[in-house]
Amino acid sequence: MPREFQFQVSPEVAANESMLIQHVAKLFQVNPKEIQKVDVLKRSIDARQRSIKMNIKANVFLVGEPYTETKIELPDYPNVSNAQEVIVVGAGPAGLFAALQLIELGLKPIVLERGKDVRGRRRDLKAINRDGTVNPESNYCFGEGGAGTYSDGKLYTRSKKRGDVDRILRLLVAYGATPEIMVEAHPHIGTNKLPQIIQDIREKIIACGGQVLFDTKVTDILIKNNEVEGVVTQNGDKILANKLILATGHSARDIFELLYHKKIEIEAKPFALGVRAEHPQSLIDSIQYSCDFRGDYLPPAPYSIVKQVNGRGMYSFCMCPGGVIAPCATAEGEVVTNGWSPSKRDQATANSGIVVELRLEDFKPFAKFGPLAGMEFQKDIEQRAWRLAGKTQQVPAQRMIDFSQNKVSSEIPKTSYVPGTTSVELGEVFPGFLTQTMRQGFQEFGKSMKGYFTNEAILHAPESRTSSPVRIPRDPISLEHTQIKGLYPCGEGAGYAGGIISAAIDGEKCAIKIAEAIGS
Question: Which residues form the FAD/NAD(P)-binding domain (predicted)?
Fold first, then answer.
């Protein structure tokens, strides 16, 4: 029987299989030749001391003990060409994993995606970066794979349901992700590798008899006697089914407006909003690793920080080591920032959203919009930033200390944000309470991370699409909308997830509930 061990080693030992076996042999007090395999289950960095260690959890197999390398395979999906149909609106992680789960359960998904396929999106991403041209149907937020495809591919989640998380990770490995995502404490696929995985998922859905339709924007939901009958697309086509998973993501404002105007119950939801801060990666490494050079065996350092400032939470969000900042507007007349990292995380800069929690009372100036008040608050800031930066996809920017001192930066160095920046006093972008909280908060951050509070750091505004400003209410047991039978609000856009993994889990949960409802 293998022995499960937890131990610490240096980063160099963790990266070298032969050295790892020698270390374990000392723990076992055996000859290294007696060890057949050290099967690493989990790996994380402990940087609390000056001498950085890697935490390892592993199964150790001695020579002669049965060991078979685990091969992760896809489920045995049935062909569902002639099965009952379920409409899935949105081809982000919630929608795609809902579709896969529906197929497993013998149902036929019809996935409707307003944007382009994962490869076709690239031309539109190039246009927004190079020309400042926003395609409202195809951008960093809309298109196959959703917002996560080209804005990082982080797989970390705080979900307590580890079994569900591991299932999603295993499926991603089966579709081509590196098995390392099953091991790392903060797994990450990378924007350069995720598109192929997304494409393979789509091809499997189609091969099993499901449908995936691109450039297919839902403009109406057909409802009779408070029951779903189907949807209408932008071309006037009707697609009929009495089960609908609504997985449109946190930026599909037209869907929120559609529900509101059809008097389908929705509610304003608190979210967080702030800036995206960029530091030299070497500076973050020196802070986090307490060294001048991190060496060859440590990854670019991430950071996570939370403070209470003026009674509000201010925290880092979607931190991207060795990454870049991207333009994520979904309409003309607004600017939005986000960040991503390639799989190697080998860029010279580190960036993170630094955001402040908002409350429903903060949206009072937009009360006339009812449950869309938070969305209008969000839009107002994005549009103001667009105007202040020159009405292009350049964003307002300011050095961190200058911002805290209410001082316009005399010049902004070139950052990773390709469309460029305009020097603006960011207090002009945000409401006073947000500005005051961030000015004080950055100084507090600097007390916890010595060197973080610096004018080498450039703040880009705004980081505003952290989560949905709207929640679409659903029954906690059936997951069906509280008012409309057959409507299943799902994922980030509905207010029930916050990232690739949690959205995928929620998609699967909705698919399971639909299968139960059909079978009952």
Answer: 85-254
